[in-house]
């Protein structure tokens, strides 16, 4: 899957609602503003007059308020009580120049989220901000889940229009996707090749209401350096050919969604980098010392069993847990056979439009024939079968021959033999043909797998039962 992105002209605001800093001291305001920007925030308002705070908040909801206690006109504790009463969804972090336990306890009881003393330290402030934003995300998630439980019907069914189904399992997944879409937490989408993981990722992005772009990248086969440069970007002069700075995909997807496809094939070193991003929420572009804040929602997808990969030492356990805060597992087509007739008609409509030909009728025996096929390529494979048959067809009725021939090639002629073919199973090598060497046989298998998978190394590797890295190495050695 290639990178697909739409970059906004103006930088995305993070967080979506502003952070308000209230202090009567101008130097303290400038310092807090600078430290917050160093921590990755860019949606910041400052206020030096405590009398203006409530009017500001009435016009503009705030995510977090940093509130100095000792101020003229309206003192901090009075403002804290008013904010807690009128704006319960805004977190207040009290900042004061005195260390007084009683004051701190009193402020927490009156609704403060946290308490800090001056001078403000970057590390302490960064931790407090991360905790506050994580808390807000959890609050939003709880609200979304409660709304879902109250109203299980889809609120935006049009988002799923590209996923053709009547399966109750798929409809339940639509509901789950709606319930989790507006949270900031990571989502793991699992399922076999061709089940529609990318369609679900795009649906979650659209449902989320996030203003940024949807950016997708296939991470399979990326070595550690390429992975880091692709995601994090680099500064000018970071390496020999870096003549200019380049934003990474995380920055391109700011306030949007970053989809990491084939996440199960990520190298160990790249897994460590991704884990740090998910844990800390910030990252460093190559050649840069200043951290950047991640404002993209991470959605990952894989056709591998990550639990099994963890047991085999191929995938980090901690990263597995981080990726699957929310988890959607899409069923294979063979487990939702009630969708076969719908999908066939849908793909025939596409073929008729594409080739400007009348739509043929579907023989009743076609669905029964396909119900006996395992569909290793799932919906994507069915689409290819239908489009191929429709493109060749010149009759009013869609013929079965091309489907039978395809299935025979995939499963063997004993179970699915076309009427005009012999039922005798073909041996892999005839008695008069020399047996190839192991190297020759390996090259033939790789060549055949790549041909069947249209050059997709990940799919070919799965077909052969080896890793994508293994097939890549063999290709380099043998130049298959």
Walk me through the structure:
- β1 (19-22), α1 and β2 (44-47) form a beta-alpha-beta unit.
- This protein has helices spanning 26-38, 53-59, 76-86, 101-109, 122-150, 168-180, 197-208, 224-232, 249-252, 268-280, 306-311, 317-323, 340-355, 364-371, 378-392, 401-411, 438-452, 457-464, 468-478; strands at 19-22, 44-47, 64-68, 91-96, 114-117, 187-190, 214-218, 233-234, 246-247, 257-261, 282-283, 292-293, 297-302, 326-329.
- The chain folds into four domains: 19-141, Response regulator (Rossmann fold, 3-Layer(aba) Sandwich); 151-331, P-loop containing nucleotide triphosphate hydrolases (Rossmann fold, 3-Layer(aba) Sandwich); 335-411, Helicase, Ruva Protein, domain 3 (Orthogonal Bundle), CATH 1.10.8.60; 440-478.
- Residues 1-9 and 413-426 have low confidence and may be disordered.
- The protein has a five-stranded parallel β-sheet, sandwiched between helices. The protein has a five-stranded parallel β-sheet with strand order 7-10-13-6-14.
- Helix content is 45%, strand content 11%.
- 34% of the residues are buried.
- The chain is built from 19 helices and 14 strands.
- The radius of gyration is 28 Å and the shape is elongated.
- The protein is α/β, with parallel strands linked by helices and 480 residues long.
């Amino acid at each position: 899957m290639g990178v697909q992105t739409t970059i906004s002209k103006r930088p995305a605001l993070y967080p979506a609602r502003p952070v308000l800093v209230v202090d009567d001291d101008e130097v303290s305001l400038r310092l807090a503003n600078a430290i917050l920007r160093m921590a990755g925030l860019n949606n910041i308002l400052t206020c030096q007059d405590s009398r203006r705070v409530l009017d500001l908040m009435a016009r503009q909801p705030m995510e977090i308020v940093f509130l100095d206690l000792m101020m003229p006109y309206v003192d901090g504790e009075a403002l804290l009580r008013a904010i807690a009463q009128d704006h319960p969804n805004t977190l207040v972090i009290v900042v004061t120049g005195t260390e007084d336990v009683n004051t701190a306890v009193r402020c927490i009881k009156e609704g403060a989220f946290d308490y800090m003393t001056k001078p403000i330290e970057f590390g302490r402030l960064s931790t407090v901000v991360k905790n506050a934003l994580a808390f807000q995300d959890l609050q939003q998630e709880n609200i979304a889940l409660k709304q879902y439980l109250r109203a299980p019907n889809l609120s935006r069914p049009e988002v799923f229009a590209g996923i053709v189904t009547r399966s109750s399992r798929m409809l339940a997944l639509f509901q789950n996707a709606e319930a989790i879409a507006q949270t900031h937490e990571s989502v793991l989408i699992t399922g076999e090749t061709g089940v529609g993981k990318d369609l679900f990722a795009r649906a979650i992005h659209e449902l989320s209401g996030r203003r940024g772009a949807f950016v997708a990248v296939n991470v399979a086969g990326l070595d550690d350096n390429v992975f880091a440069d692709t995601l994090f970007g680099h500064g000018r002069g970071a390496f020999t050919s870096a003549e200019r700075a380049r934003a990474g995909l995380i920055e391109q997807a700011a306030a949007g969604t970053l989809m990491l496809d084939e996440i199960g094939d990520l190298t160990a070193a790249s897994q460590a980098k991704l884990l740090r991003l998910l844990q800390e929420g910030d990252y460093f572009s190559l050649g840069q010392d200043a951290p950047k804040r991640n404002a993209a929602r991470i959605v990952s997808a894989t056709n591998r069993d990550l639990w099994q990969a963890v047991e085999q030492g191929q995938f980090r356990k901690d990263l597995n847990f981080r990726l699957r805060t929310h988890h959607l597992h899409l069923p294979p087509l063979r487990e939702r056979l009630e969708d076969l007739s719908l999908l066939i008609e849908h793909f025939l409509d596409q073929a008729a439009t594409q080739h400007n030909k009348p739509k043929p009728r579907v023989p009743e025996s076609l669905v029964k024939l396909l119900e006996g096929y395992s569909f290793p390529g799932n919906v994507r494979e069915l689409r290819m079968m239908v489009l191929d048959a429709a493109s060749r067809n010149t009759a009013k009725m869609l013929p079965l021959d091309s489907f039978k021939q395809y299935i025979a090639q995939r499963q063997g002629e004993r179970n699915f033999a076309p009427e005009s073919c012999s039922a005798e199973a073909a041996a892999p090598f005839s008695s008069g043909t020399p047996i190839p060497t192991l190297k020759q046989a390996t090259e033939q298998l790789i060549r055949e797998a790549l041909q069947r998978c249209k050059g997709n190394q990940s799919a070919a590797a799965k077909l052969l039962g080896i890793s994508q890295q293994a097939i890549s190495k063999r290709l380099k050695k043998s130049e298959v």
